[in-house]
Amino acid sequence: MVKRALDVAISAAFLVVLSPVMAAIAIAVYLSDPGPIIFRGRRIGRYGRSFAIFKYRSMRQRTAPGAAITVGRDPRVTSVGRVLRATKLDELPQLVNVLRGDMSLVGPRPEAPEYVEKYTLEQREVLNVRPGITGPSQVAFRHEEELLIGPDPEWYYLTTVMPAKLAIDREYARNVSVWLDLRILARTAVSLVRPLPPPLPPRQIHEEPTKPQPLITAGTRDA
Question: How far, in Å, CA of 53 to CA of 126, rounded?
Fold first, then answer.
């Protein structure tokens, strides 16, 4: 109950305070590529329920369909979209998702249905809590798009990155608390103002699922 109350209070306050910024972003999105300002994508939330996630549109309206993931230097992303994605400002509309009860401020990152279908029984533990705008795996993999470069980035995401993120989020789901959420929010704020770290080497990412960093001592996609 306390977590939900904080979600509602903080999200409502942010929507009021940031309304001028959000209006300016909406204008910039439209001018960079006329069309819908808000992207609505289908995601899977708590207990496997489907919902529409809201984001500022960062991709061009008229592009050939591609993978559900966004890769490094993705040609579908607009110039304004690159700035929004780098600063995470494209996710501000998800404050509405929090007010609606679809999401929490902190939680596992919600995935598209086609990826959730590939979860193992153990990985589905992340569906026991509301997904979040930010979370431990989002902080740890803030540079994720830069990892997804190569001949088959979707395969690499499914076999390497996604299992590593789910290992971190499973630990969060088992230890969720208001205090932990506040720490993750603080780490998120710090990560947004410091340069991105160099991408993790593939071996380190492969080892992540079996050796996840403890949430108490260590830190942390989209179409």
Answer: 17
